Amino acid sequence: MRDYAKVEPKMWHGATMKALRRVPEGVIVAMYLMTSPQSNMLGLFSQPVLYMAHETGLGSEGASKGLKHCIEVGFCSFDEESEFVWVHEMAKYQIANEIKASDNRSKGIQKDYDALPDNPFLGAFFDRYREAFHLTNRRGGEAPPKALRSQEQEQEQEQEQEISAELLSDSTPPPEPSAFTISLNDSTEFVVPMSALRDWALTFPAVDVEQELREMRAWSLANKPRRKTRRGIEAFIVRWLAKAQDTPGRVRSEQGSSMFEGAI
User: Sheet of 76-79: strands edge to edge?
Assistant: First the structure.
């Protein structure tokens, strides 16, 4: 168990925390994960939901709801089989944005990483922090974990159910479309609703949302094997915009919101 953990006050003004606030249980789970007795400075650790439910007082249902929301907004990833969680930006805040190669902490970080039990996030963690912490020994393969494969199968089944529900409910008016589309893994197109465009412009005021959507479309066209499902595309967009919001130098252009200027 760590003696202390760093939680910066400015986090409350970040895009990710603003997204988490939509579900109060998500805020509680996020704060718990950053200070959990199971946690470490890498943000990659075993975290049984049972402990989370008990120590937050949320109960099993509340903890699961909060954890699901944390995953949806890109705060963390969780593998049910191994019960490992990866809080994506935790190492940056607990250690540093980056350290010099001569810094002794680099060897300590590599040592802690090497000592971790096998889990699905070892490769992704290394790829995220290799340059920042000068890591040298990568663990984990390229194939997604079994839990993620089964999740994709569940998503496909839910998509079929959603399509059936839409066919049975012809009375529901479709959302007003925008001019932006993103290619999906089933070769169809996700048409971004105008209402979502307005919401994202309010949630991420420092981001040129229109330009980021153009870049997302270009990414989807160039990365066909990694395209998102219809069910997961909006969570992907939110994670992308949140990262853009937190990236210095990516400032919203004055022409960027022309499509929905005056409509908010």
Answer: 44-46, 84-87, 76-79
78-94 per-residue burial string, b: 16 or more CB within 10 A, e: under 16 = bbeeebbbbbbbbbebb
* Lookup: tokens for 29: 């789970």
Handedness of CA 194, 197, 198, 199 (dihedral sign): positive
What gap in Å lies between CA 79 and CA 103, rounded to an integer? Answer: 32
> Using one digit for the tens of pLDDT, what is the confidence trace for 26-49?
999 999 999 999 999 999 999 999
Round to whole Å and give the CA distance between 97 and 68.
Answer: 27
pLDDT at 152 exceeding the cut of 80: no
CA gap 212, 193 in Å, rounded: 15
Q: Is the whole-model pTM more than 0.85?
A: no
Confidence of residue 146 (pLDDT cuts 50, 70, 90): very low
> Pick from 72, 83, 6, 7: which is nearest to 45 by CA?
83
**What's the mean per-residue pLDDT of the chain?**
83
Tokens of 194: 């105008």
The answer to whether 76 touches 29, Cβ cutoff 8 Å, is no
Question: Residues 147, 151, 154, 160: what is their CA dihedral angle, to the nearest 10 degrees?
Answer: -150
Dihedrals phi, psi of 90, to nearest 5 degrees: -65, -40
Query: Does 261 score more than 60 pLDDT?
Result: no
pLDDT 10s digits, 58-77: 999 999 999 999 999 999 99
For 195-232, b where at least 16 C-beta lie within 10 A, e where not — what string?
ebbbebbebbeebbbbebbeebbeebeeeeeebbbbeb
The whole-angstrom separation of Cα 97 and Cα 246 is: 13
The Cα–Cα gap between 92 and 88 comes to: 9
